[in-house]
Amino acid sequence: MNLIILTCRNNVALSRACLPTLLNQHVPVNVLIADHASSDGTASWARSVAARDPRIFRLTKREHTSVAALWNESLRWAWEHGCGRALVVNADTELMPQTFEVLRLFTLPLWDKGTPSDPGMATCVSVRERERLIEPNRFDDRPHPDFSCFMIARWAWEEIGGFDENFHGAFFEDNSAHVEMYRRGIRAINTGLPFLHHGSMTIKNADRSEQKRISEQAELNRQYFFSKYGCYPGTKAYEEMFK
Known about the structure:
The chain is built from nine helices and eight strands. By secondary structure, the protein is α/β, with parallel strands linked by helices. It starts with a strand and ends with a helix. The protein is 38% helix and 21% strand. The protein has an eight-stranded mixed β-sheet, with helices on both faces. It has a single domain, classed as Spore Coat Polysaccharide Biosynthesis Protein SpsA, Chain A.
């Protein structure tokens, strides 16, 4: 099964715009809509589209916990259904039709133990303007993964023990996963293939109390990251960990 996991937290209009671009891939795909305890119409929309299209499945978390937990639960579903890799995207994205095909070429579903430097994760690069959705002349392998649209191999996920669920809510769980992969010799690359990213719309569209909660939790996650690694993402010390 070629599986794309669509992670949702409210903002059902974004999910509606994203889903057709997932189903319109050059290779046949299935989509798992992973709803993270949405309080708008996301759950009923997901039920409706899944009832009409056998390519679509649903996973619903009743309680809001963390992005890491949603990723882990969704990926366990993928592995239980025989996937060797899965593409994970945020709802505030739209993909080019060749996205799954390109990322699959970079990401090996099985690990030859003699070659741990093979990419365990391949991602696209976010752009904010639709006119920039142009396939590059050559693909890249820059070590700067974008976790809004990433394909991960099962072996890589297992090697790092999944995403760290001690990062509650959202933010910095992706930086931690990148560090853990690097420390194990697992390459996490950015191919340079663009995807449209509407950018942090969950927090932008949230009411004031929800924005406050997200911001406060993000700072707690930032401090937890420091407790693990002794530095903050985006600093020179953080970059030094990858040298």
